[in-house]
Amino acid sequence: MRVLMSMLMFCALALGACGPSTQQMRAAKLAQYTAAPNQLLDVAMQVAQRKYKIGPVNIARSEFATESQWYNKEGGRISAYTDGKGEYVNAGGGDVQVTLIVAVRQVDSGRVVVDVTPKTFQLVSGSPKPRELAPDDPYLPPWVLGRADTLAFEIYEAAKNLFPTQ
Fold first, then answer.
1. pTM here?
2. Residue 132 pLDDT > 90, yes or no?
3. 55, 83, 94, 155 — which has fewest CB within 10 A?
4. What structural domains and CATH numbers belong to the chain?
């Protein structure tokens, strides 16, 4: 009985330390900053570079994308390999390609917000073309939104110390 109770307490502690609470995530998604869009974009890019390679950057629109990355159905990264002629990924049915779009946009009273949206394509067995999965698509693996939310929270954690929030 003691062993069971110890295991349950360990699991509860481990789950509690896994990530931000719902309240913290809500604060991150609703945060409005008093900053110039390019300043917040710079902070967002620095944070994103910790885990992702940065892809296209559009300074005029205050947004950037991470480089596309393939993941298996469970959310594990699929490594690319090269053969001297190009870079390839060994992906199969159900695997997804994810690009995170990070946009800084102005809202009322000159404040800015950060939006992180996944752009996702899923390989379908027997189909020559992957299908795009919108963020609200029922076939979108939940870990995709988890990655987007985690990046949004990490940007919030870095930005809230630099810029006043509301």
1. 0.83
2. yes
3. 83
4. 23-159 (3.30.310.80)
